[in-house]
Batch of 2 targets.
Target 1
Amino acid sequence: MENSMMKQVAKKRLLGNSLKYILLALLAFIVIFPFALGIWTSFLPSMDIAKGTLWGGGQLTLHNYVTAFTQTKILRYLLNSLVIASLVTIAHLFFCSLGAYAFVFLDFKYRDFLFYVVLGTMMLPFEAEVIPNFATVKMLGLLNHYSVMVIPFLTSAFGIFMLRQTFKQIPRDLKEAADVDGLSHWQFYWKVVMPYSKISLCTLAAYSFLGAWNQYLWPMLTTFSDHLRPVQDGLRQLQSEETFNDWGMVQASAAIVVVPTLIVLYIGQHYFKSGLNEGSVK
Amino acid sequence: MIESLPSTKQQPKGPEANDKLTAKVKSFELKKNDKYYAWLFLGPSILLLTVFVFFPMLRTLYLSLFLTDTFGKPTVFVGLKNYTILLKSASYIASLKATGTYVVSVSVFTIIFGLLLAAMANQKLRGIGFFRNIFTATMGVSVSVSAVFWLFMFNPTLGILNKVVIAFGFHPINWLTTPGWAMVAVIATTVWMHLGFTFLLFFGALQAVPKSLYDAADVSGATSRYQFWHITLPMISPTMFFVAVITLISGFKSFGLIDLMTGGGPTNATNLLVYRVYKDAFMNGNYAQASTEAIILTVIIAIITFVQFKLLAKRVNY
Amino acid sequence: MKKISQFIKRYWQLFSAAAVILVIGLGVFGYSRSQVHDASGRTRVVFWHEMKGPGQKKLVTFINEFNKSQSKYEIVPQFQGGYNDVIQKIMNTHGTDASPAIFQSMDISTSQMYHSGFTVPMQKFVDKENYDVSKIASVARGVATRKGTLLAMPFNTSQTTLYYNAGLLKKYNITPPPVDPTYSDITRVSKQLYDRSNHKVKGISVESYSWLFEQFLSNANEEFANQHDGHTGISTKVNFTGPTAIKSMTWVQDRVKYGDFMNFGSHKNEMAAFLSNKLGIYMQTSADMSVLAKGLGKNLGVTYYPRPDGVKANGISVGGASLWISNDKSEAVQQGAWEFTKFLINPKNQARWEKATGYLAINQDSANEPILKQSYEKLPMLKVPSDQLKSAKANYTNSGIFVDGVVAARSLIQNAMQQIYAGKDVYKSLKAAEDSYNKVLESNNLANGWTK
């Protein structure tokens, strides 16, 4: 009697589990399918794609990748994005941490006022300010140049805000001890605060890098040659240049672009998670 | 600048040779230095934010009160006329509605699917790690890559979606060139793009729910549905609200996807507010109107961001 | 002094960090600034173009040939995307290092380029060298001419062309449309194809693209804007609701209602459907020709753009784009741009250009080039668009629209067309576009001080 009941429970669990697996597989399919299809078509001969034969059409080929690497500037686009995103990331780490330090450890007039001012900038979308910003960078002679994609983004209100939250967690005793030891603000910042906030800094770095990597509108407006275009706009360029459906090549380029970000992501995943927690829980 | 920095020679007034007091005095002296350090540390950020955020906002506001000529220069002052014309224009109202539809749908579906993924991945099953990794995969996909992948699926003659549609015996759909479907297409793509990020957020929130709560519920015999509504949901509601706000804001700023997939068409069906700003300024050369639209967009986003701040502030008090 | 060195000693990290950022910044700054000369001392001539597909391939070939043919100049091509973006890009970059020396800009931008004062009229170079400009097709020149002065040089000139799938017509035993067809001629073919194929093949597609609408008006001698489409003064009103406008759009809407019409939504999709025998007729630029001829061969049918029943064809204006030389570069650079222009429009290159792309050879001597002769012999329908071009006599309504900001009008018209295709009232849709654009025109004229 008891045995059969146990069996039934086990059966029920098995059924439940297989249902769960089916649902999981279905969801995984939905998430991964557009990806997989894109990657898959990047290996198909152009003729097969044009005819609409996506499977069973014969052999796979690397031809699209060869075309992408040799006929387009995809590598150049990648390099541009890498340079721009790295510069923006370094600058964010530096300027945001300094700013945050000022708000936490320094005592000066209008501190709170300035903090609200910085916070206020987070409310103003960059996308809505492109017209005067364009005029500014034109006046500064930065158009069609790396610096136009870096200089306006050297600091970030979000970064300052986030690091301020982190710095606030640093025990006040540390600061007092540092004062006793005669450490200057700069020394305290460099020797204590920065090492203490490594995780938050990594998180900010990951966000800044991804943010800069995904810039689309601004580079589109301010760069005019393939020499300088970052990947996002490079892909747009390829997409629009191909009037006649060289889908294989376009997909191959997209695949080339997506691989580095996936790598960064899997390395940086831990920091993203902790960043999310900092942003949402603290 | 350097000369004006106070030298260490100046002795503070407190004459007693007490160690503790010296430290206090020292820190007082340092406090006096704070002003200079503040300039040094905060200066670059404030300068950049002023040049690239505050000034442009004021300038945009200024431009919105004028007519601009071929060169984008403000020439004729018209007061608030640009605003009244815009808010009366049927096509702008349509854009407002389209943007509303887009951001709300994106927000709602992102939450539903993100939560579903997180809930499924939060189970103790063999090989669940594999699924968790897959669910975060879209985090690495940028706007243009998503657009390329989905554009191919939406292609009316070659795309996989129409093959499915035909297999079920329906007429092929012109996904990106029929007003209603185009909106569906951009929403679907956006939601897909957001999934990885949202999954991670919800998953983190679910994992943070104390296990003891469920144990207690188990003991009292509560069903899993009851547990979901009365334990899980309240516990993760702050995360949910957070997700809602950030997807709303990013929805209002959604530019690249629209540019690549529909160009604001067909019939302006996906001509979202932010895309209009670009189109009116950098295609039509109507900088005054574009500035007016930019100001309206800013007001909307500012309000939502303000709500987000309030929310964050509340959380800090937790 | 001592104080300073002490200070530096104490805060060296700060300084070095600032220095690193400064160095990186400056390094980036100095890098890849557009130079006037290339490594071998040739004058760099930056060329902005918007050619895609076969046109881009051929253009790059021309550029390479030009760069090899002489050692004074180096043409540097930079693809800029669509025609629509490039006008504002020129307006926004003029006078900076980013601006091009020579650029390609479409027919409807002529007025804006003229008013900007940012370019050197081609006439200057033509006069200086006594270049024989009469060899260039007059209708093509008309689009880039203001009061007898040639502002820009037509380069990629196209005509709206009606393509039909002759193979499909044969299969279903349908008489092809005549040369210079009327709307009802096209209706007949489209309906028959749709009916006889048991609705498997769509008869016709007309992309919701304003250029096609404009050509409907042109071909019936109907004005788009007052002041004779802007040719005699500043236009203050547009007219999207004239008899031809209504007639043509009603005609398309009737096709939608009957079912033989399909809106493919984009040029790309339309072409794909046509090539895969799912669509019988469509109207587009003659620049589609090379791809279509490659895909369908002898089964490709080509005829003139249709006209309303009972109206004599007025001919259509040319589309495509012209070459403009900027005036913010040195004389040497401008001269290089002119040399390159001459190279592109010489008879041989224009003949090769037409063969490769379907853009029409604007140099009349190109017709004698063997490459073009041979290709006409092989596929006679390739010649139809250039016959169409020759059959038109230039007048105000078929010489382009000389109004600033037609890009905005186009998007309004496209919007109206899409509404009409979706079943909305023809007059109301067009009227709404007309009213909106009249407001734009009014404030634009006011802002520029052209009206009070």
Target 2
Amino acid sequence: MKKTHIIILVGIAALIVGLLTYSIDLSTYDTITSARAKPGKYLHLIAKLDKTQPITYDPINNPNYLEFHAVDSLGAQTKVVYRNSKPTDLEKSERIVMKGKMEGDHFECKEILLKCPSKYKDNKETLKKGVSETTSY
Amino acid sequence: MNFTGEQLFPGQLGHLFIILSLFAAILSTIFFAKGSFAKDPAAQNMWLRYARGTFIFQVVGLVIIFSIVFYICANHMYEYMYAYKHASKELESKYLLACIWEGQEGSFLLWSICHGILGLIVIGKRKAAMVKGWEPYILTVISLAQVCLLLMILGVYVFDVRIGNSLFTLTRNEIDAPIFSRPDYLSFVKDGMGLNILLRNYWMVIHPPVLFMGFATTIIPFGFAYGGLVTKNFKDWVKPAIPWTLLSACILGVGIMMGGKWAYESLSFGGYWAWDPVENASLVPWLILISGLHTMLVFQATGHSLRATHLFALLPLCFVFYSTFLTRTGVLGDTSVHAFTEAGKAINVMILMLVMLFTLPSLILFAVRYKSIPAIQKEENSNSREFWMFIGSLVFFFSAIFIIVKTSVPVINTVFGTSIAPPEDVEFSYNKVAALIAVLIGLLTAVTQYLKYKTTRKDYLLKKLVLPTVIAALITVAIAMIYPLTYSKQGAGFLGAIYLAFFAAIYSFVANAMYIWTTLKGRLLSGGAAIAHGGFALLLIGILISSANKQVISSSMVNGINFAAGTDPMTKQQDDPLENLTLIRDVPTTMGDYLVTYKKDSLGHEEGRKFFELEFLRKNKQNEIKERFVVKPDVYIMKDNNMSSNPDTKSYLYKDVYTYISFALNSAKNQDTAQFDIREMHEGDTAKYSKGYIVLNAVQKNPNNERFHYGPNHLALGADVTVYTNDNKQVKAMPVIEVDSMGVMHRDDTLYAQNLYLRFEGVADNHHIKLGIKESSQLIDFVTVKTYVFPFINLVWLGLIIMAIGLVVSMVQRGKFSPLQTAITLGFVTIALGYMFLFAGG
């Protein structure tokens, strides 16, 4: 066997090892109910802001504490605590992807990704709404 | 129905040219293919003449289409969907181009124009050594790509399925709203939706064209390799392909880092690289391009690595199309911050077909021809340059595969129905691998230059390597002592890996600089490779220092407790650094070495843009001010009250202090309507307010203290008061009344933290004074900020520029540019990149 072949095999082996170690770190997407079933496990939660509940954010006292409620597509609800500043488009978001863990009565969120209609002009519904904003009778 | 005010002609003209250009592209694909395979020279000439004609017509058509889109957007013709979606009246004219490539359709158009320009250059240079004989093959591929891209913007229905989204569709046909049934609807459409606020930045004007040009250039090595495979002339294409590959590596590399610089300057994710899928997807083709470049050089010098060269020349374009698939079909979904969303099922299918159309046949052809591609049976010596260059190519190639597999997890989820999500710390999962790759690449680029092709004498190598090795080791040790890397978050093992990478990068930089000095005797024009490698090493050094020693100085871990009054007991977690700091107006707050005060806010010239003036003071131990500067991060407050935050940076040669607003009040709803409540008080009297009480200690005549400096000639009275708050704090305050020739002046004192305003209203009888107390109905004025210090970040940009210059130097050498062309090219690249990356901020 040639040296280069050995090196290629070593490279492939390194690649596989790298991807395997990566797969150990992987987490999952969950619903609120399935997340409750595994408290303390790091996972991704897909839900929406529950607009019927108040959002608590008082930056004067503490800029790093945000509390709100989320509801998922199956109707399950949870309180969410995010120890960071409030993402600007939170109220407007259509969908929230939250990364974190279920802890006791709430979801301890480390990172929030918002899906906001404003950034996605191709959405038909948004366009319809946009028309009523930019036109005036 | 007849609609008033619509101008339909530009759209019809544009649509006509889309169709004409598409036909021209189809014809030129066929003609170039015919020309490639024609045996008879006369027939070949004929086919190629037709092919060039149709190709040029197609490019002219694209330019006309682009001009019409520009015209429609510039004139705010909102009857067109594209203008309505992307332009608006308040949009500054510098963003007019940017709003064209904001959308899917416009960016496809931009990409095809880049292909067109490259195709014209290849046609123009068909007799030069860098193309000679390969024009038909390259142009067949480019023309085919043009057909695909034009289909994406065709907008024609075939049995209810819309093929492509046209740039010229009408708003009333696209949006289903009652207003569009009125004949005079256009008079009600006041404005378009405009360019997304987040994208209003000069990088949005320059980054997309450069990046798309980078994507487009990968088609040329692909075209050469395709030519080699179909003609079985496997060897002759490599030499002319090298300058093109250098060009591609340069433009794509710069384009990618422009995105990084943009993210760093204007988006608030706190850095220039986040391993976001969109970034990864464009990095992967670049990595493979670099692999291909090195195997091409190996083949030119020794005849080895020809098979790998074919593969590495084909793959960059395949991965460019794959990255288009990842970022534009919405498949990345929740994993990316800035992927495009899907633009319809039909387009998604078409993009997938585009990927297949280029990837499958080219890889099958490669597999079929694999055995017939000549390979040297004798293997490379392990003391030869080609052996280690090949190893370096493999390192880049495997890194690319690693990154793309990780990035493709959402695709895996879609295909197999799994729900795998990214790990907790996405960046670290990449960084730990990247650190090891940096070690390998640093060492390889340091040593390999000193090796000779075929075989190298050991004593020669050792003699050459001793000095750079010693110098690099000394520098590393010196830096470790004076300015140690302190990234302890991931443990000592990772810090060790960072140090190793750091040494390797310094080693590479020193070795390449010395190579130019000692071996090339300072002949820079022959040292393109050494310059590029040195630049890459400097880039690595910059990345390592700026990320390892990045510091969040707004962190409450650095500041002690942020704001004692109401810290939530829940938040005092050790492993959770709280990185936002609230600055109350006029209250100086300690942040790292600085005392930071939020001074005032001001409006920008764009509607809804608000700047916050933050004063940074650095004092020495004697409390003398050593330095003062002001940064003005801003937020856009959009019509719907949502905000977009743009950082501001104080740049030093050796570090950046980078601040953005993480939360701000919306002042529109925040007007003060409260009145002063006047109390008559004697010295020693007490007045209550809602959050505590106020004691008048004394009335001072012409007070002379930190705030006021009255002398005996003034006529001023100060009320020395102490405010006792309900949370057991005592704060001194002194409102002053002053009389001079101008009249009476009140110098109020404000306790922002208590929302309390005090005024010395006047003097009453019996040694009483009138003290005005106002508790503002206005919320306290404050901003919440996040501030980073990025040390030595300029090395990142400088390294990139040097690398790009090195690639260009190699390109002009191998492309046999004349001295004048060389001077112009190098001058242009140096000035343009230096200006963009180092001087033009924000």
